[in-house]
Amino acid sequence: MQADFHYYATYCAAFLAGCPHEESLLIAYCSQLTDCCTRSFLKELKAPLSAATTQNQTELMDAPMDLLGLQEITRIWSSFHFLPRDLYAKAPEGSPSFYRNKYRLICGPNGELLLDTVHLAKGKGPEAAGLAMHILADTWAHRYFAGTPSLVINNTNYAFEELLTVNGKEIFRPLKFRHSPSLKDDIEQGIYVNTLYQTSESTVMNLGHGRAGHLPDYSFIRYRYMPAWGRYTLITKDNPHDYRLAFCQMVHALKFLNGNTESFIRGFYDFEALKGYEETVSRILCRRQTDASADWKAFGESLSGQAIPDFDESGYREEYLSADAGGKDGTVLGRYILAALAQKSMVTNKIARSKNPLAGISVEYDGKKLPGIRDYLKLIRISERGKNDKVAKNP
Questions:
Q1: Helices (H), 142-258
Q2: Do 101 and 109 contact (CB within 8 A), yes or no?
Q3: Cα(141)–Cα(159) distance, rounded to whole angstroms?
Q4: What are phi and psi of 366, to 5 degrees?
Q5: Which residue from 33, 54, 69, 147 has the highest number of Cβ atoms inside 10 Å of its Cβ?
Q6: Can you tell me the distance from the alpha carbon of 22 to that of 27, in angstroms, rounded to the nearest whole number?
Q7: What values do phi and psi take at 38, rounded to 5?
Q8: Phi, psi of 172 (to 5 degrees)
């Protein structure tokens, strides 16, 4: 997904979930920040580098392709963009163990880790809610791809076809790919940009949905293709349908996070919230365009009657930089960083506990001082501080 959904559509979902305008903006900001919070961004802030939620192209190309480098890539992309649906899924019979471990990292909606992600954000404020909404939405857009470099999982057959409705009839149109990142997708001609085929199992060219280009990021497209993980059998993806479910699931999740409902239920979608807006949302989702930001922005402003500023990555930078060492955790970016550390630690440990070594290990943050990433000691200290506060209030 792109900023059109992660920022503007997330604002709309938050407002429909009962969040005030300013809180909806903050949730939307933190959702989109998840695509921007690189190590480079954190270095400028002198913030914990382990809070990185993404990697830019330079960082990926410079990343070592040894065991530790691949584990760090997997920690980031599986935690925030390709949340695994089933860490105990049964791989096709006869598959080698290395394939099984990667197969179990395939992203999809409504898994146990989604439940954990939403519950982890509960009571942590709009920053954690925004981070969780980014992850939730991506489980729909990125389903069938894995957040680890893998030819045997993420590669696809060259044959892609778009499902179009022409004169009332559905037809399949072949799509073409080119490999220059400087070029733009041409949706009218059916020509898209994807990563170059590489035979190496662990090249970053085989990370996520690179081989399918931006097709998973566009809400309008319906297409079919043959993924490597499915042994190149044909599957169909209906993005308008999936994006609608993602939007209604975000509303449901945000109602839980803001206290308007008592529970978050996997597989439940708040279609009721769309009453009166179905046609508008459907029109936005199905309109053939590579960027639906203007449409989602107009819809959001019609809902709240307030102006929605464009996303500004540096919006809360000065607040964080000007805070003293003891006050940084209380800033917007400070709370976001804590949420990111907690999410990455939770997902990494769940993967490790499933006896899957691909994401390595991280520390627990429930007070058990296990070995792991240094930055996570902050979570241990905060966890211990919270337990001590509870004891003081309830002697």
A1: 151-154, 239-257
A2: no
A3: 20
A4: -105, 20
A5: 147
A6: 9
A7: -90, 170
A8: -105, 130
State how far the Cα of 212 lies from the Cα of 197, in Å rounded to an integer. 11
| C-alpha dihedral (366, 369, 370, 374), degrees to nearest 10 | 100
Report which residue type is found at 184.
K
Pull the structure tokens for residue 198: 């590489």
Q: Distance from CA of residue 86 to its chain's centroid?
A: 16
DSSP 3-state of 146:
strand
Which positions ≥6 away from 297 have C-beta within 8 Å? Answer: 8, 308
- Any alpha helices (H) in 122-238, and if so which ranges? 125-141, 151-154
Q: pLDDT 10s digit of each residue in the chain, 395 long?
A: 799 999 999 999 999 999 999 999 999 999 999 999 999 999 999 999 989 999 998 998 888 888 888 999 999 999 999 999 999 999 888 777 789 999 999 999 999 999 999 999 999 999 999 999 999 999 999 999 999 999 999 999 999 999 998 888 999 999 999 988 889 999 999 999 999 899 999 899 999 999 999 999 999 999 999 999 998 999 999 999 999 999 999 999 999 999 999 999 999 999 999 999 999 999 999 999 999 999 999 999 999 999 999 999 999 999 999 999 889 999 999 999 999 999 999 999 999 999 999 998 765 544 444 444 555 566 656 555 555 554 344 44
Nearest partner of 295 among 54, 11, 93, judged by Cα: 11
